[in-house]
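User: Structure please.
Assistant: Input sequence and predicted structure:
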Amino acid sequence: MRRLYLPVLLLSAAAALFYLPGLIPGRVLLPLDILCGAQPWSAMAVCEGRTVANPVLSDQIFAFYPWHEIQKRDGWRGALWNPYAFAGSPLLGNGQSAALYPPNWLNWILSASWSYVLLAIFHTAIAAISMRAFARRHVSEAAAMLAAISYAFTYNFVFSVGYPFGWSMSWIPALLWAADSRRWILAAVFTALIMLAGHPETAVVAAFIVGAWLLSSRPSRIDMAHAAIAAGAGTVLALPQIIPLLRYVLPSAASHFRDQLFPVIYSAHTMLEFLTPAFFGTSSPAHRWGSNDGNFFGLASFLLVIAFMISRPREAIRNPWTWIFLVSLAFVYGVPPFSWLLNLPHLHIVYSNRFWVSATFAGAMLAAYGLDEFINKRIPRLVWLYLLPAAFCFLMLFALWHFRAFIQALNLSGFETRVVLKFIASLIVTVAVLRWRPTWTAVVVYGECILYLALYNTAAPKELLFPKPPVVVFLKKDTEQFRIMGDGVFPANTASVYGLEDLRGYDAITPMPWFRAMEQMDPTFPDLLVRTDLAPVGIHMDTLFQRDHVYRMLDKWGDGFRELLRHVFYWNQSLTRVDRPDLLNELNVKYYLVPHGGSLPPGLEDWQREYSAEVDVYRNPHVYPRAYVLRPGEQAPA
């Protein structure tokens, strides 16, 4: 029993230590400082002098926290229907609200100071413990611990731990362990949890991982039948989430336009993040200048993966995780024919970068096999001590030379010097541990993750947890039922924290009727092309991102991509003009909020300013009540 309990305790302690800043009294494991970069909070004293540590995590503030608060405040009524966005929308239907995901209920019971950090620790511990349990059935204890660390504490997981796809990721090792040990009831439960976590794309990737591995093990017909029954039972358990999701998604703007979206192009330079997640600022968002995220799962782990493939090619070819790893990279980097598969019906919803999940899992398993081969002295010293370290150093030097213009233009010389020094130190420690204490390799990888990623998820002061600005007090004095609209004030969803209903909304789906109504008011509303800089000047922090997301696509698809940009902006929140103000009247929009001193969009000249302080609030003199009855011959109320 000690052999079982000790790894569980160690991995649980590692998870708690990793998110220790979130356990400090007066802290909340949420990037709440993001509010200080948005109005109206930026004008409040509590935000004075604060900067945003990690803007990449904005969805946690602009989507997930408000949805959790709606559910906590309104109960199951709020979980089913969200009156605070899109003029009303089914909250359960957007999937990522994860109202039926049991661990998420912790947000209903505990304060945010406890629930978010406990959920992060719980999901990390579940992922690490179950990964170790699965890997231990195939490799040594030291190698299994390395697999656990390389999956649950590395970039792809740490970034996503506060997101629904991170919650789905947590249960993939558990599902594989259940399938491997033929515990089919548990397999059904874990399948349901992956689906209930609210991220269908990750569920597809999980099916790819489990299906590919299961088929490679040459199961009997009985085992295949059991696996199918377990998958079916898990799906049935998740139907209360799946059915509303499908009913909301299928007629949505996201479903309509994802059929037309061109795949995101991943550049080969993102592979440099196998060596360090810091070169492009991925783990240091204040210095972020890359195009897309790569996939760091430990320098020692990556070295062992490459060493295993080079030194033991026959064993690597026979190992299913080699193929899962390589095929995952082929999906990510758009290598035919694998990239063509994502154009098939129902698979177009899966963004290629979701296959970093399977690449991380397979890479962690390959690192475990590589460590066992190393401990058994089947990997030549020439490979791990000389060849690979020299190759890694050469790649870093080449990257510095290749991107020298960016580093100079963005004043990143000091930052990149520190990145290189960290990389060299990490490489030296890795080689030293492999030379004298290879069974401690998991400790080295954990140390790397602490070095690069422990502060990635911001633990912000509690006083930043949606403080109430004066404009909220003003709006709440109005006892009538009304909606607000705005530009640059209260990013969509955030007003719901204060019980204010907003015409705007933000999720990954967007109801098509709402999108078309906004287009009637502002014909440029869907037009992303007019908002995109197609003639960039010089080098800036977004240059690589724009190159991979816009310019390379324009070069490859030309006018087809331009035409798509003209009508695809379904996540837009701002009106540039209002051609149909009567629609705002009918939708019960009584107040329009703009930054202090800002102007209303053309078409609302007769709206009257009622409040002017940290922001300006204009009242609609023609607003209709929320509901009214028109008899034959009657006109709408003035």
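The chain has a mean pLDDT of 92.
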